Amino acid sequence: MLRTRLLAGALALAVAWAGGATYYLVFHDEVLARFVSQQSAIQYGYEERIGALRLQLDRVTMEQAAARDGITQRLAELVRRQAAMEARQAAIATLAGEPGPSQPGAAPVEERAAETSSKPASGLKPYPTPGTLQLRTQDDLAPGRQSAGAVEGRLAAMEQRLDGLAEAQSRVLNRIGLRAGQGAQRLRGLVARLGLDPARFERKSTSGIGGPLVPLDPDAFGLSLAQAQRSLADEARLRRIAATLPVRRPLSGEISLSSNFGGRLDPFTRSYAMHTGMDLRAETGEPARATAAGRVTLADYNGGYGNMVEVDHGHGLITRYAHLSAFDVVPGQWVEPGAIVGRVGSTGRSTGSHLHYETRIDGEPVDPIRFLRVAAAL
After folding, report:
1. pLDDT tens digits along 124-175
2. DSSP string of 172-201, one letter each residue
3. More confidently predicted of 31 and 233
4. How far, in Å, CA of 13 to CA of 334, rounded?
5. What is the rounded CA–CA span in Å between residue 322 and residue 301?
6. 112: Cβ–Cβ under 8 A, 6 or more apart, which residues?
């Protein structure tokens, strides 16, 4: 019985082995193909995922590179604008006659800008300067170090600050030009009140100028700067002209007239005659002073003038100081404004101690009082 069971088990085992071997031989290729297909599907899935991640990484890298390039360009533009504004500020400081922003004693940017907007046109000492924008490097502003919003906000703040400073510079420059233009117009009017044309004081240029025409592309600031420079140069020229005019008092103290310029009864003949100057009350020995810088052309006795000093101020302007008791200058001597040219007396056709003072334009006598009135305006 036991033997029979053992034989049956061995037979079953043999049958199972034979069946498994037969199945393996029959379905081996199919199983292997299925396994390989599963592995390939897994591999393709990983590769597709890796490819998608690589594309995403490349896109992020390109976006960051574009952002860095944009930041670099904007920073370069900010640096260029600041350099241009510093050059403009140097020009404004030169026009205003003030120290540059880099010199000691300059107030902070915010204080100068505030003072500039609050002070009148006559006070040009405060003026805006670019100062420092604390520009960061490309790496400091690159995405990753700061958020994109923070980077954009900082760049926008820098640009806005430069815009504000540019507007402040333009306002100051316009005020400088306006003030200079008004000063030049006022001085031109004062010179015209004397019956003089400012053109007579112009020196004829003998030096040649020239060169090829290279047009510039002027911006609004450049045009305003050129206009302000012209106005300042015009004002300075007219101030130099005013400084050469005989507008100072020929005597110290208040003026006291004893006889005006023009027609009058002659004190000796009692007939109507022309008085070519004005007579000023003064004590004998009181100093008579030059009313403008010039060269002494005469210091001698001159008929009815008595002892007379004549000073040539150039451009056809001459002053005379007559009836002097003594001379303090000699012909050919250069005198400065206020210099003593002689002492009051009563020489020549004179009824008493006084100073006869004359002003002449191109040899013709004109009323000296017009010069003294202009002196008060100046």
Report:
1. 444 455 454 454 444 454 445 556 667 677 777 877 888 888 888 888 888 8
2. HHHHHHHHHHHHHHHHHHHHHHTT--GGGG
3. 233
4. 147
5. 9
6. 106, 126, 127, 128, 129
